[in-house]
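In response to reviewer comment 3 from the previous cycle, which asked for concrete evidence that the modeling workflow produces usable outputs, we include below a single protein chain processed end to end. The sequence was submitted unchanged, and the resulting structure tokens are shown without manual editing.
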Amino acid sequence: MLNQSFNGGVVIDNPHPVDTVGIVSAPLPDKVVLPLQQRIGDEAIPCVKVGDKVLTGQVIAKTEDHFCVPIHASISGKVVSIDKQIIPHKSGLKSKCITIESDGKDQWAEYKGCGTDFLHCDQATMIEYIQSSGIVGLGGAGFPAHAKLEGIQDCHTLIINGTECEPGIMCDDALMQHHPREVIRGVEILLHICGAQRAIIAVEDDKQEALNSLLMYCHNERISIEQIPTKYTSGAEKLLIKALLDIEIPSGGFAIDTGVICQNVATTKAIFDAVVDNKPLVSRIVTVTGSGVESPNNYEVRLGASFEHIVSMSKPNTHQHTIRMGGMMMGVDVKTTSVPICKITNCIFVNKLETKPSTQECIRCGQCNQACPVDLLPQQLYWY
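The workflow returned the following structure tokens.
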């Protein structure tokens, strides 16, 4: 096991550390709001109507576009509206959503996958399970997972991204600590699908508990675990490939152009659930943190529940706060905690409303040059 790195980067301390990284199961929400427009692809078309009763995991909207994935009910209950509502977007954008009112029973639709002996399944069947289960990239991009895996040729390395380069986000760390077996089995499924010779799980060097948990269940000689220095932006796909394999992705190219596939660790666990059980993606782990809460934590919560549903569990300590979805560096501010949790919601930052320091003109000190991970000269670009 090596300790890999890349040029530049910035070390940012976690401003709100926790003693233990656990996962709290959030209670079932009274209602969920499920947007029909996902991150990528066409808007899904409802296949239910107002008044219909639905089961957890039932398909409620889909599109003919093979690139897209269906949308599933995340609770059982009754469809009470299909209309435009505010979604997690910095502009306060409204988008068409299906609202389901819970019946409190959480009755699941029937589903069946390949089972634990998944190696007897062919790649096409596995990919079909991944698509029908609604699996997308859970690291923030939301790219449909099946689209990355179709028609693969000449893939030599699979990289599982277990880094969380933005400070404060702990959901993937918690996942690796508490579900290491499912992660490793998910890696084996991906190896079977893409035909890669080897897989590398990248874990930051401050996540020792996650590393130990994975090592305990990793007995496959084709799977190795590599440590990455904890700095921003170690989780960026191109930088991760450069650090682990010393391969540069060409300008305008993709990882697969160099024989590499990257998947987020949470996506990998969701793929395990999809292939083994054909279990649809109806929940995810979300970190709630920031100066505006007393008890930062990770919550496994149903998709479509409001931000407020889990923010309230972390004991907000102020009414004057800002809400940010995603990391401190690349997240987006949202206007209200009434917006729904979606598949790409990995973290909710609740920060006290504070006066921002004034910006200063560039004095060409060169620190940005040392930090740039792609070897640019930002102080020179500033003038153009």
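Residues 38 and 134 are 11 Å apart (CA to CA). We consider this sufficient to address the reviewer's concern, and the full set will be provided in the supplementary archive.
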